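Appendix B, example 12.
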Amino acid sequence: MKILEIGKVDLASLCYLNKERYPFLLESVNHNDNNRYSILFAFPSESIVLNSLSDFDFLNKLESQYKSSNVNSNLPFSGGWFVYLSYELIGQIEPILSGELHTSELPIAYAVKIPSAIIIDHKTNTTYLIDQDSDQSRIDTILTDIELIKPIPEENILGELSQENEDKFISGVKACLDYIVAGDVFQVNLSRQWQYKLTKEIDSAIIYQALKNANPAPFSALVQYENFSIVSSSPERLFSVQDGVLQTRPIAGTHPRGEGSEDKAQKEDLINHPKEIAEHVMLLDLERNDMGKVCEYGSVFVNEVMTLETYPYVHHIVSNIKGKLKEGLSIKDIVKALFPGGTITGCPKVRCMQIISELEQMPRGAYTGSIGYLSLDGKMDFNILIRSFVHTDKKLTFRAGAGIVYDSIPERELAETKHKAAGLIKVFKE
């Protein structure tokens, strides 16, 4: 493997320059020690694509193709695979759900082999170019492309915004409350859809740049794949693996931002609200249980408990959970244990997902799915796709949800979906 330290690079501009050569970007826009790297994946080669749940076992095939090596690197990616999992992949993980899921024409999952990348370490303010095979031709091409970079043009994103009927969501919340009272579930994450019909086609990189400015987030992403793109400002990690340590970072508990002293009051109310605390603790227990399926007994612990993270439009309660992976486990084992995240399904997971399918009545697709990477040295990092657009032709589709519990008030849960969607809607021009 070859590693070069290079000058500062605008990664999104390389996506704009050549999306075929640089199709996938994971970017820590508002980074910290937990999210210190941005990665631009280059030179995609062979791929694994699942279009139907009945085609083949996606995780089995990925596991068979992914071969770890003895690469010794402090960087997060040393070559490997970029992976997309839609929410509907759960149909292969929990077969009882396969007949209840709604599907679309877009892929259910895909993985693409990646030999090269540009990596920014935001902690040290250093940029690296890596190639797993020390291929000088690929390296030279990337260096030449960097010289050709031009700023992504600013364009007004114009069109017509529509949203799913509010009465449908209110009725769905009431149905969730009935299920909770009946003892089926403790909490259900119910979501609703918005669509923006563009006046004209626009490059996904331009939309990404606008979203990055409007709603910066630690797990932002631009994913450009054949007939659709994902443009994401996700704040949430599904899981990461490094040196045999598995981590997940659940978000549960949301309040809108306010002005001045009102904003401070919103933060205080969120972190001290009995409903929000109870919901967060319940989901912490769910995720600890999920991690216990693949971690050594007694190794799972919460190293960061109920901290506040603030974004342009909302405050969130966030925790972090760590555990030591059992020996001999694969990507399939980890995904089966943790996907999709409990914070965006509810508890217990399987029954919640049945209720979600019944009430939402459409596929989630990318929403609450995941994107991430498998590095040759065993490192992995996957986000949860919330606060994300799916860009197809001249249309942007996105969803936002709320966690419904026993004392939820339907109108307040509806308002929460609007607060979460605000950062996405901000990119549109009247």
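The mean pLDDT is 93. The first helix runs from residue 11 to 17.
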